[in-house]
C-alpha cells in the first residue's frame, strides 16, 4: 500500500515586519514546513516502518524555493517527492482551495495510493480545506481533524477519531481509499538527521506543471482576489507596559494585587 | 439570487452558540443583498432546534430530519439539495470542526468558490468582500469573491448572537437521500478524561505556551505558580509534547476558562487558544513579539522576554 502526503511550505512573518504598499516584503518572511503536515508525514512514515505501507510519496504545490522544504520531508523519511508548479500559478489562482485540489487530483490518480494524509490546515493562510476538497474532487471518502486512525485492510476501511470542540471526540468508519486531515498531537514528529539531510540533497524532485497534469488555463482563472494586507486593528484599551523587566514585573504584580488574586 | 442560506450546527441535542452568531451575520448580509435569510437545521431533534432559531432577521427555517447527529455525507447531500431548490447567493456555515468536514465538499460539488474562517464580510461592487487572518492572525487580508454564488465559513466569536423571538415559518424540507452515497458511519463519541486538575475552577491561571522552549524551563513558571498559589494551564503544543495532561489544555479543543486573571506567558494567541480564554476577567500577556495576536485581546501587554520578566515577578512577590 502506498501513502501520499500533501505537504505545504508555509510562510511566517518575522517579529519585526512592516507592511509596505499593502504587502509584506519577502525579507520579512520565513519559510518552513507546515506544522500540521509534519504530523501527517510522521504518521505515513511510521506506517511504512511498521510494514503496513510500502511507500510514502509527498506532493507539494510550490515554487522552486519550496525544494528546500521538500528535502526536509525527504530527510524525515518520505521516499519520493512531487512538486507542482508553473508560472501560471503566481498570484491569485491558489487562493481558491478547489484549484489546489484540482492540481493535486491528477497526481493522486496517477499514484493511486490507498490513503492520502494532509495537515488539518496550513499555518499561513489557514483555509483548512485542501484535504477535504481533494477527497471530494477524487470522489473518495475523507475525515477532517483526525487525531487517531486504524486501518482495516480486510474491510477496506479506516476507523478515525475526529477531535471536535471542547474535548469531545467522534469515532467514525470510512471506506478506503480516503483522505484524512491530520491534527497535531497524533504522534511525535521526528527530527531530520544530518545523514538524512545529506541524502535528501541528492534526491530528484519530480516537477510537474499544471499543463502536464491536464489542468488547463481556464481552470486557473481566479475566482478569489486577495486585496491589501493590513495590521489587525488593536482593541484600543490594551495597556502596554514600558520599561525594563523589573518595571514590567512590578506592573504585573500591581495588576495581580488589584485583581485580588494575589495578596500584598 | 440574493438570498442567504445559513446552515446551523448542533451537537447531542443542543444548538451550538455559533449558530446564533451565524444568524446575526446572515441577517445583515441578507439585508445588504436585499434578499432573505434562510436557516437550515439538518439532523437531530429538528423541531426543538428550530424553536431556538426563531430569531429576528430569519425569514424561513428549513428542517431536514435525517439522522441524530452530524454525518458529512448526509450534510453534503442535504445542503446541495437545499441549494438547488433555494438558489441562494451565499451559503454560510460556522468555521467549526464539523464545517471543516463537510463544507469544502459542498463547494466542490456545486463548483462554488469557498472562503473560510472569515472575520468580516460585506457586499461591494467588485463582489463579496471578506476579511480573514493570515500568518496566524498577525496580519489581515481582504479576499473578494468575484463570482456569486459562493460559500463562506465564519470564525466563531466574531459576531453577536442574534436575539429577539419572532414567528418564522418552519418548513420541513423533503429530499430523497441517496443511501448508497453514505459511505461514512459515525459510531459514537468519547469525552476526554477528567485529568489531574480542574483549570476551569482557578481564580488565577498561568497559561504557558511554546515560548517556554524546553520542558526543563517550566520551572520558571512553576516557581511563580508556587509563590502566587496559581494554577498552570497550557497551550496545545505543550500538551502535544506530553509535558502536560490534556485536562490543562485551554482553547477550542481544550477547556474554556474564566479566571479572574489569565497570565499568558509565551503564547501567541492563535484563534483556537483565544477561544478558551475570552471569559477571563483580566488577561495579562508576556511575549517577545510585539505583533503577537494575544496582545490584541490582552488588558495588560508586556513586550518582553519571559525568562527576564517572570523570575523577576516571582522575586517581587516572594
Ligand atoms: C482544529 C484545531 C484546534 C486547536 N485547538 C487548540 C486548543 O484547544 N488550544 C490551543 O492552545 N491551541 C489549539 N490549536 C493550535 C493553535 O492553532 C496554535 O498552534 C497553538 O495555540 C499555538 O500555541 P503557542 O501559542 O503556545 O505557540 P506558538 O504559536 O508557537 O507561540 C509561541 C509564542 O511565544 C513567544 N515567545 C518565544 N520566546 C519567548 C520568550 N522568551 N518570552 C516570551 N515570549 C516568547 C513567541 O513570540 C510566540 O508568540 C488548535 C488548532 C486547530 C487547527
Chart the SSEs and their pairings.
The complex is a heterodimer of chains A (264) and B (318).
Chain A: E1 2-6, E2 9-13, E3 19-20, E4 23-24, E5 29-33, H1 35-49, E6 55-61, H2 67-75, E7 80-84, H3 97-111, E8 115-119, H4 130-138, E9 141-152, E10 157-163, E11 168-175, E12 178-182, H5 194-202, E13 206-208, E14 224-230, E15 239-240, H6 245-259
Parallel strand pairs in A: 1-6, 1-8, 6-7, 7-13, 8-12, 9-12
Antiparallel strand pairs in A: 2-5, 3-4, 9-10, 10-11
Chain B: E1 4-7, E2 10-11, E3 14-15, H1 18-33, E4 37-42, H2 46-52, E5 60-64, H3 72-86, E6 90-94, H4 97-110, E7 114-124, E8 127-134, E9 139-145, E10 150-154, E11 170-172, E12 184-191, E13 204-208, H5 219-228, E14 231-234, H6 236-240, E15 261-265, H7 271-274, E16 282-287, H8 294-297, E17 300-303, H9 306-317
Parallel strand pairs in B: 1-4, 1-6, 4-5, 5-11, 6-10, 7-10, 13-14, 13-15, 15-16, 16-17
Antiparallel strand pairs in B: 2-3, 7-8, 8-9
Helix pairs in contact in B: 3-4, 5-9
Structural commentary:
- The complex is a heterodimer of chains A (264) and B (318).
- By secondary structure, chain A is of the alpha/beta class.
- In chain A, 27% of the residues lie in helices and 30% in strands.
- Chain A has one domain: Rossmann fold, CATH 3.40.50.620.
- Chain A is globular.
- Chain B has two domains: 178 residues, Rossmann fold, CATH 3.40.50; 119 residues, Rossmann fold (3-Layer(aba) Sandwich).
- The chains are: A alpha/beta (264), B alpha/beta (318).
- Chain B: Belongs to the ETF alpha-subunit/FixB family.
Can you tag this structure with a few keywords?
heterodimer, A: 264 residues, alpha/beta, Rossmann fold, nine-stranded mixed β-sheet, two-stranded antiparallel sheet, globular, B: 318 residues, five-stranded parallel β-sheet, 27% helix, 28% strand, binds flavin-adenine dinucleotide, Electron transfer flavoprotein beta subunit (chain A), transport (chain A), ETF_b (chain A)
Amino acid at each position: 500500500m502506498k501513502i501520499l502526503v500533501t505537504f505545504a511550505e508555509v510562510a511566517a512573518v518575522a517579529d519585526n515586519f512592516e507592511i509596505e504598499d499593502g504587502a509584506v516584503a519577502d525579507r520579512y518572511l520565513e519559510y518552513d514546513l507546515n506544522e500540521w503536515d509534519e504530523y501527517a508525514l510522521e504518521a505515513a512514515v511510521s506506517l511504512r516502518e511498521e510494514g503496513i505501507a510500502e511507500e510514502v510519496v509527498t506532493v507539494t504545490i510550490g515554487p522552486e524555493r519550496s525544494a528546500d522544504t521538500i528535502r526536509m520531508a525527504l530527510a524525515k523519511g518520505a521516499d519520493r517527492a512531487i512538486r507542482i508548479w508553473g508560472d501560471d500559478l503566481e498570484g491569485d489562482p491558489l487562493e481558491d482551495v478547489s484549484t489546489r485540489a484540482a492540481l493535486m487530483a491528477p497526481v493522486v490518480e496517477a499514484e493511486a495510493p490507498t490513503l492520502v494524509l494532509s495537515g488539518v490546515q496550513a499555518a499561513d493562510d489557514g483555509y483548512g480545506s485542501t484535504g477535504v476538497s481533494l477527497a471530494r474532487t477524487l470522489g473518495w471518502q475523507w475525515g477532517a481533524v483526525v487525531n487517531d486512525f486504524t486501518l482495516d485492510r480486510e474491510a477496506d476501511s479506516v476507523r478515525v477519531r475526529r477531535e471536535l470542540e471542547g474535548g469531545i471526540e467522534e469515532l467514525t468508519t470510512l471506506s478506503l481509499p480516503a483522505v484524512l486531515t491530520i491534527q497535531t498531537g497524533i504522534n511525535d514528529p521526528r527530527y531530520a538527521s544530518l545523514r538524512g539531510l545529506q541524502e535528501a540533497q541528492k534526491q530528484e524532485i519530480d516537477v510537474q506543471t499544471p499543463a502536464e497534469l491536464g489542468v488547463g488555463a481556464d481552470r486557473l482563472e481566479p475566482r478569489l482576489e486577495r486585496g491589501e494586507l493590513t495590521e489587525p486593528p488593536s482593541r484600543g484599551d490594551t495597556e502596554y507596559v514600558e520599561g525594563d523587566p523589573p518595571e514590567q514585573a512590578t506592573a504585573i504584580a500591581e495588576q495581580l494585587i488589584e485583581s485580588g488574586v494575589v495578596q500584598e | 439570487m440574493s438570498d442567504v442560506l445559513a446552515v446551523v450546527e448542533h451537537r447531542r441535542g443542543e444548538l451550538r452558540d455559533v449558530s446564533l452568531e451565524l444568524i446575526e451575520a446572515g441577517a445583515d448580509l441578507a439585508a445588504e443583498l436585499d434578499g432573505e435569510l434562510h436557516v437550515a437545521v439538518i439532523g437531530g431533534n429538528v423541531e426543538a432546534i428550530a424553536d431556538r432559531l426563531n430569531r429576528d432577521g430569519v425569514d424561513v427555517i428549513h428542517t431536514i430530519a435525517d439522522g441524530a447527529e452530524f454525518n458529512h455525507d448526509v450534510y453534503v447531500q442535504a445542503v446541495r439539495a437545499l441549494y438547488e431548490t433555494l438558489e441562494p447567493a451565499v451559503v454560510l456555515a460556522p468555521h467549526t470542526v464539523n464545517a471543516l468536514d463537510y463544507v469544502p465538499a459542498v463547494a466542490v460539488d456545486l463548483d462554488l468558490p469557498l472562503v473560510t474562517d472569515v472575520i468580516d464580510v460585506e457586499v461591494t461592487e467588485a463582489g463579496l468582500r471578506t476579511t480573514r487572518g493570515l500568518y496566524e492572525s498577525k496580519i489581515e487580508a481582504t479576499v473578494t469573491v468575484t463570482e456569486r454564488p459562493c460559500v463562506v465559513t465564519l470564525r466563531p466569536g466574531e459576531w453577536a448572537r442574534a436575539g429577539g423571538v419572532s414567528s418564522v415559518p418552519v418548513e420541513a424540507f423533503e429530499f430523497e437521500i441517496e443511501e448508497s452515497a453514505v459511505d461514512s458511519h459515525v459510531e459514537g463519541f468519547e469525552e476526554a478524561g477528567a485529568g489531574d486538575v480542574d483549570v476551569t475552577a482557578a481564580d488565577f491561571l498561568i497559561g504557558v505556551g511554546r515560548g517556554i522552549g524546553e520542558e526543563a524551563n517550566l520551572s520558571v513558571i512553576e516557581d511563580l505558580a508556587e509563590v502566587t498559589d496559581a494554577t498552570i494551564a497550557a497551550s496545545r503544543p505543550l500538551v502535544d509534547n506530553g509535558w502536560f495532561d490534556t485536562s490543562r489544555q485551554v482553547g477550542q479543543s481544550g477547556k474554556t476558562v474564566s479566571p479572574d486573571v489569565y497570565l499568558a506567558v509565551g503564547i501567541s494567541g492563535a484563534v483556537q487558544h483565544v477561544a478558551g480564554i475570552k471569559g477571563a476577567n483580566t488577561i495579562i500577556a508576556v511575549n517577545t513579539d510585539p505583533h503577537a495576536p494575544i496582545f490584541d485581546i490582552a488588558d495588560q501587554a508586556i513586550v518582553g522576554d519571559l525568562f527576564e520578566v517572570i523570575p523577576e515577578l516571582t522575586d517581587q512577590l516572594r
